[in-house]
Design goal:
Length: 138
C-alpha cells in the first residue's frame, strides 16, 4: 500500500542556455502558494549539457524545490506538446502529484490540455492568483 502526500506539486519548467526561464521561475513561485510547507518537484526535458546545467540551476533556484526530474532525450529538445504530454502523464502517475503547474507560455498552453486529456482531468488555465490549494482566481 502506498501513502500519498496530501498536496504535492510538479512544475513543468522550460529552460534555455542552461538556465530555467523566468516564466518557469514564476510558475515555481505560484507553486509555493499551493505547496505551503510541502516540497515541489520540477520537470525539465531536453538533451545535452545545457539541460544538465539547467537542472543544477533549477535545484538551486528556490528552497522549496525538493527534486529535479530530468528527461534527457532528443525527443524533448523541442517544445512539441504530444511527446511532452505522454511524459507528463507518466511522471504524474508515478509521482502521484495533486497539482501540475506550467507557465502561461505557448508551450504550457499547448501541453497542459493534452496532458489533462490523457489523465482524464480538467485543466485550470489562465490562473492569475492562487488563494488556496484548490481555489484559483482567473
Amino acid at each position: 500500500r502506498t501513502l500519498r502526500r496530501l498536496v504535492s506539486t510538479l512544475v513543468v519548467a522550460e529552460h534555455e542556455g542552461g538556465l530555467v526561464k523566468p516564466s518557469s521561475l514564476s510558475a515555481l513561485v505560484a507553486a509555493e502558494a499551493i505547496a505551503k510547507e510541502n516540497k515541489v518537484s520540477l520537470l525539465l526535458g531536453g538533451s545535452g549539457p545545457a539541460l544538465h546545467k539547467a537542472a543544477e540551476h533549477a535545484a538551486a533556484s528556490h528552497p522549496l524545490v525538493n527534486e529535479v526530474l530530468v528527461a534527457d532525450s532528443d525527443v524533448f529538445a523541442h517544445p512539441l506538446a504530444e511527446p511532452w504530454a505522454e511524459l507528463l502523464r507518466s511522471v504524474q502517475q508515478k509521482g502521484g502529484y495533486s497539482h501540475v503547474i506550467a507557465s502561461s507560455t505557448s508551450f504550457g498552453k499547448n501541453l497542459l490540455p493534452r496532458a489533462a486529456a490523457l489523465l482524464d482531468v480538467s485543466p485550470v488555465t489562465d490562473v492569475t492568483a492562487i488563494s488556496e490549494p484548490r481555489v484559483f482566481v482567473r
